[in-house]
Design goal:
The chain is of the alpha+beta class and 257 residues long. It has three helices and 15 strands. The strands form three sheets. Strands 2, 9, 10, 11, 12, 13 and 14 form a seven-stranded antiparallel sheet that branches. The relative contact order is 0.20.
Length: 257
Amino acid sequence: MILFALALATFAIAAEAGCDYGPSLSGKGVGGTKLKQITTSSLSNPQWMGGRSFAQNVKLCKESCNSNPKCNGLQFSPTSWDHQECFLMTGTPYNRAGWRSEMKSCNANRACNIGPKLSGKGIGGKKLRQITTSSLSHPEWMKGRTFYQNVAICKEECTANPSCTGIQYSPKYWEHQECFLMDGAPYSRAGWTSEVFSCGLTSKCSYDNYQSGKGFSGKVLRQITTKSISHPEWMGGRSFNENVDICKKDCMLNPDC
């Protein structure tokens, strides 16, 4: 079977394995092989921080460890150092004066079917998070991303949060558009739009090397425009590589693909 075809009202998205860190282990390092080193703060060489804050770099350490199955935890250099470092490590904790470590524990991957869009509906329950998708007077709230990129973040974060049952979008006549991650059920709400998430667990798949001059026979399951010169709107505001990634994720989630 082939993943090719036709834009549908619903689609699926998978989150990386959800990982937790902690508790913080004072006076401990993590042994094994060093996979990566990231400067989290620096007094004399702030350019080493990549223009990010300490908290953003610590988050980057954890995201990098999440995406590497060999990474078992993080060790952080002593606070007495002029510059702070985090190290992605493969081993287990051991005594190391002045150092601090956090070990990683992960759950299975979570996959969600999303949609279709429900016009005139909100989603009740608790607001888990609010993200500005577009704003006329405060474009900085969009963090330098497009509307489509922020909507994608809304969906990715709902997929990664086991408590999130769906997303509600504020009315289009608002000066700035918002998406809200919610944990309840749909209800009537004039001017609002919502998408309900139905989630379960999935496994990861790998893809073989690119084969030039080859197609697939069988039934078309879905079609996604990865690139268009004359109709860029068909790309959904995403780049070619982002759309190829969506193709692969959808194929992973469909046992017939």
